[in-house]
Design brief:
The protein has about 425 residues and is of the alpha/beta class. The chain is globular, with a radius of gyration of 24 Å. The protein has a 7-stranded mixed beta sheet, with helices on both faces. The protein has a 5-stranded mixed beta sheet with strand order 9-8-10-11-12, sandwiched between helices. Helix content is about 30%, strand content about 20%. The chain contains 11 helices and 18 strands.
Length: about 425
């Protein structure tokens, strides 16, 4: 990480660590850098923070002063900026957001022409310019001054792309959305409505200061309660810039990133579409996820925390599944669920114990426990259950009616095994 740029761009409290002057200079350097051999085209999106408008104008001033054309997506999601860069031949993309941070923070995320986080060497050059270590850049004059273009149509094209993803519509499915009063407020409901879902939305009224405040993916309990109280089939909670989501099933159970990766990875493999047979995760993923992949003969690649590292690994492999674009994940997961007519509860992996640490003696048996949550058991071998030996397997991710071995439930670090 550099002096200003971390794993997720240049971030800090607005006009404290990240000032409007910083934004202007970032725009100046980016506009000059990408415009050395041709007139640069830069696309910009922002979230709903009050300071996002200020930073947008400063970036545009810097970009156009260096001769670049600035295309404004307005309030939109980080994945939509990446999509626009890749599909519309932009030189660079900029997203103004501090993701799940409070409203008074903000950030500048830079994306290269592939829609990935910008290269570290370019970030280093921008930092050198910010610190006055690079001589002043020339200003564009006359007809070389850049234009500012309203590009809301680019966001609409992204919405159309999301609508095209599911293999069937969501007619009569009751879907709850927590938009975190952020970027997804401009996109999510339109997508699910177009797919004929019965859409129920909360935290969809941004005012510049309420983004992520007691809502969204960092406060999943809000959506859990809403889904259960309103009898919904499924719910999705987004963060401020909608590059992540957490799902909730009809009982309020959380379907987190690991479970979503497993479901999507297994489905893509079954369809022959998991290129390279590989799923990319960060080191924060649970050991149970990797054991689940191994039992399905799915490869995985681990990276450091930060989507720039995940993206680098994924694009470097030119393969695999990278579950970062939250709206894509939501559409894909719900589509898979509909195809197989199962509730999301069936896909709960829960917490696992590493097979190298667990033993049969550590298994806790509670014959009276009627709760059944389906999970993969990390321990492999025989366990003494109530005086009789039961073989513990991980042959399949879902122990359903066709697998009459054991039903397991994981609570905290304790595994309960019960004869089916």
């Amino acid at each position: 990480m550099g002096k200003y740029f971390g794993t997720d761009g240049f971030r800090g409290e607005a006009n404290i660590q990240l000032t409007v002057d910083h934004a202007f200079k970032v725009g100046r350097y980016v506009g000059w850098y990408y415009g050395r051999e041709h007139k640069a085209k830069i696309v910009i999106g922002k979230d709903t923070r009050r300071s996002s408008y200020m930073f947008e104008y400063a970036l545009v001033a810097g970009l156009t002063a260096s001769g670049a054309d600035a295309y404004l997506l307005h309030v939109t999601t980080t994945p939509s900026v990446s999509y626009a860069v890749r599909t519309e031949n932009f030189d660079c993309g900029i997203m103004i957001s501090a993701s799940h941070n409070p409203f008074y923070d903000n950030g500048i995320k830079l994306l290269n022409g592939n829609g990935q986080k910008i290269e570290a060497e370019v970030e280093a050059r921008i930092e050198a310019y910010l610190d006055g270590k690079i001589e002043d850049l020339p200003y564009a004059t006359r007809e070389d001054i850049g234009r500012t273009v309203d590009y809301a149509s680019g966001r609409n094209r992204y919405i159309g792309y999301l609508i095209s993803i599911p293999c069937r519509d969501f007619k009569n499915i009751k879907v709850g959305l927590d938009c975190s009063n952020g970027s997804s407020s401009a996109i999510a409901k339109s997508v699910f409505d177009a797919l004929r879902a019965k859409t129920y939305v909360i935290n969809n009224d941004p005012d510049g200061t309420n983004i992520n405040r007691g809502c969204g993916s960092t406060h999943i309990e809000v959506l859990q309660k809403y889904v259960v109280e309103n009898g919904l089939d499924v719910g999705f909670a987004y963060d401020g810039d909608a590059d992540r989501c957490i799902a909730v099933d009809h009982k309020g159970n959380i379907i987190d990133g690991d479970k979503i990766l497993y479901v999507c990875g297994k489905f893509l493999k079954s369809q022959g579409k998991l290129n390279g047979n590989t799923v990319v995760t960060t080191v924060m993923s649970n050991m149970g996820l990797y054991k689940a992949f191994e039992s399905e003969d799915i490869n995985y690649e681990q990276t450091a925390v930060g989507d720039k590292y995940v993206a680098f690994s994924w694009f470097g492999l030119t393969t695999g599944l990278w579950a970062c674009a939250a709206s894509i994940v939501a559409c894909g997961l719900l589509g898979y669920w509909l195809m197989h007519s199962k509730t999301l509860e069936k896909y709960s992996l829960h917490k696992s114990i590493d097979s190298t640490a667990a033993s049969a003696e550590q298994l806790s048996v509670r014959p009276g426990d009627e709760g059944v949550a389906i999970t993969r058991l990390a321990l492999i071998g025989n366990a003494d259950i109530g005086g009789r030996t039961v073989e513990v397997k991980s042959a399949d991710g879902f122990l359903d009616e066709g697998t009459p071995v054991v039903v397991v439930r994981v609570e905290d670090a304790q595994i309960t095994v019960k004869k089916k």
